[in-house]
Amino acid sequence: QDHVCSLPKVPFRGAPCSDAAGRQVPYSTIMKQVNGSLSGALWDEVQKAPFYEYKDSVGQFHQVWFDDPHSISLKAAYVKSRGLRGIGMWNGNSLDYSGEAAAEQQTQAMWQALTP
């Protein structure tokens, strides 16, 4: 309700509620799942990041937060505007390198977003 998805309290490095309760999803899976999801792509203005919501086969509610070319470009522009030395992407190997036309375009757009 109201796009709130609580994580179970799984201690990780002293944080009582962390991403240790979740898991990483490859970008290729996200791109295939987002349009058919319960919510479609949503945008969080505070985090400057997209997310979507879905229910799995047993009815469990999930949220998936991710970066896309737009959110990455905002972060890269922020880094540049502050004169910081760089930006990192969490796992570039999670992009889709399958060679499919749509995947190639998405992957290229993600890498291009890193240089504002």
Number of domains: 1
The overall strand count is 3
Please state the CA-atom Rg, rounded to the nearest Å.
16 Å
Main β-sheet description: 3 strands, antiparallel
Query: Strand fraction band?
Result: 5-15%
> Structural class of the secondary structure composition?
alpha+beta
Strand order of the largest sheet: 1-2-3
The unreliable regions are none
Distance between the termini: 36 Å
Figure out the total of helices.
3
- Succession of helices and strands: HEEEHH
Describe the structure.
The protein has 116 residues and is of the alpha+beta class. It has one domain (19-114). The chain contains three helices and three strands. It has a three-stranded antiparallel beta sheet with strand order 1-2-3, covered by helices on one side. Helix 2 (69-81) runs parallel beside helix 3. It holds the Pfam family Glyco_hydro_18. One of its GO terms (molecular function) is chitinase activity. One of its GO terms (cellular component) is extracellular space.
Short structural summary:
By secondary structure, the protein is of the alpha+beta class. The protein has 3 helices and 3 strands; from the N terminus they run H-E-E-E-H-H.
Question: Which terms would index this structure?
Answer:
GH18_Domain-Containing, 3 helices, alpha+beta, 116 residues, DIAC acetylchitobiase, 28% helix, 3-stranded antiparallel sheet
Fold blueprint:
Elements: H1 27-33, E1 42-44, E2 49-55, E3 61-65, H2 69-81, H3 101-113
Antiparallel strand pairs: 1-2, 2-3
Helix pairs in contact: 2-3
InterPro entries: Chitinase_insertion_sf, GH, GH18_Domain-Containing, Glyco_hydro18_cat
GO molecular function, one term: chitinase activity
Domain GH18: 1-116
